[in-house]
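Q: What would this chain look like folded?
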Amino acid sequence: MNVKDKVIAVTGGAGGIGSAIVRTLCEKDAIVWILDIRGDAGEEKAAAFRAEGWKVYSVQMDVGVEADWKRAIDTIFAQ
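A: My prediction, written as C-alpha cells:
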C-alpha cells in the first residue's frame, strides 16, 4: 500500500494499538493526524514522532461528537 505523502487520520492514535498504526504509517512516509479524546496524550505522542523526523500532528476530539469531527477536519485541511 503506497501512502507516501497521503494525509491519514488515526482515531485513538495516542493509545497502544493506535500508536502502532501511526508508527507503521510514518514508516511508509504518510502525513499522520492523531485524533484522540486525550488531547495532551495525543500531542505528546505526536511530538515524540516528530522528534523522530516524521510528519505527525494531533487534534483533541471525541469521535461521538459531530462538532468535534467538523473541527478536526477543518484543522487538518487548514494545515
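Strands lie at 7-11, 31-36, 56-60.
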